[in-house]
Amino acid sequence: MKILAINFGGIGDEIFFLPALISLKKEFDANIVLALEPRSKSIKDLTDVIDDVVSVDIKGKNKYFELLKLVNFARKNKFDMVISSGGNKFISILLFLTGIKKRYGYYTGKLSEILLTEAVPLNKEQYACDMYHDLVSPLTKHKTHLPSINIEKQEKIPNSVLIHPGVSKMSVQKGIIKTITPEIWAEIIDILAEKGKHVILAGGPDDDECINKILGNIKTKSENFENYYGKTKNIKDLAILIAKSEKFICSDSAPLHIAVALKTQVYPIFGPTDYTKLVPKSELVVPVSSNEQCALKPCLWEKRQITCKDLVCLKINAQDVVNTVIE
């Protein structure tokens, strides 16, 4: 069985998609090729469920040419089945053009019923992993609830709290603010270090400006603080560091979903997004949000595509965050 899976989005979206792929692997012992955006191809470093990836730059200037290349790739490789996420009406046409006999996607109108083997109802009012898994529910008796990634079991760093403040560069460029200010992050680090926690600060290439501002505001001179920025060279290095940490504080971004997959105790900061759709119900995941009242919250993606100027939803007190983490 050769399966082509299509899921465009960031690395977090690919982690959300993993449970569906895991269930397919269990059912068919299939060879799975995942078509994704170039920015997310590192997902293959975290799992052996995906046998290969093919990059499709749908955010670039030549997105239609890229999609045509995907169609040609699908036809050339003679897949038995194709499964695609996405609520765009064009998806069913894309899948039909691949010539693959069995085609599964979300219901987007009458045309999707005609062109797809099965058009699955799209239910966005649930945890994202479950939403994606609905795509494969007609195909398998297996139900994988959470993502899992292939990292060897790590020995925990005693008394450690890892902090990863960053969000994707694309979010920043689009004016999508989903995290607290560097000044608040610095205050959280200071308080945790003062209380004797081994605080580790990490970040990726996109986080340079944020990390430098945090470092410029940190007051602690304690040996309890460790600047680990730049030492994680790739996503697998970061996953290993998350696995080593007793507790993890992060933004609403991909590292959160890595922590969920690794079953590391995580405290994600949430502002304008709806955390009920982004994290599972688990004692290992404790969302941290503002006590301030906002009539529109959650608004990002639900009511607007960029964040507002007031950011009432991100007025989060550093001491409150620390109290939640060490209570």
Describe the structure.
The chain is an alpha/beta fold and 327 residues long. The protein has helices spanning 11-28, 63-77, 90-97, 110-115, 128-133, 169-173, 182-194, 208-217, 235-244, 254-262, 318-326; strands at 2-6, 31-36, 52-55, 81-84, 102-106, 118-120, 160-164, 198-201, 225-227, 247-250, 265-268. Strand 4, helix 3 and strand 5 (102-106) form a beta-alpha-beta unit. The protein is globular. The N and C termini lie far apart (50 Å). The model has no long low-confidence stretch (mean pLDDT 93).
Give the topology:
Blueprint: E1 2-6, H1 11-28, E2 31-36, E3 52-55, H2 63-77, E4 81-84, H3 90-97, E5 102-106, H4 110-115, E6 118-120, H5 128-133, E7 160-164, H6 169-173, H7 182-194, E8 198-201, H8 208-217, E9 225-227, H9 235-244, E10 247-250, H10 254-262, E11 265-268, H11 318-326
Parallel strand pairs: 1-2, 1-4, 2-3, 4-5, 5-6, 7-8, 7-10, 8-9, 10-11
Helix pairs in contact: 1-10, 7-8, 7-11, 9-10
Radius of gyration of CA atoms, rounded to a whole number: 21 Å
Number of E-state strands: 11
Please give the count of helices.
11
Largest sheet: 6 strands, parallel
Give the helix proportion (percent range): 25-40%
The dominant shape is globular
Order of helices and strands: EHEEHEHEHEHEHHEHEHEHEH
Q: Which structural category do the helix and sheet elements fall into?
A: alpha/beta
Can you list the strand order of the major beta sheet? Answer: 3-2-1-4-5-6
Whole-Å distance between the termini?
50 Å
Averaged pLDDT: 93
Uncertain runs are none
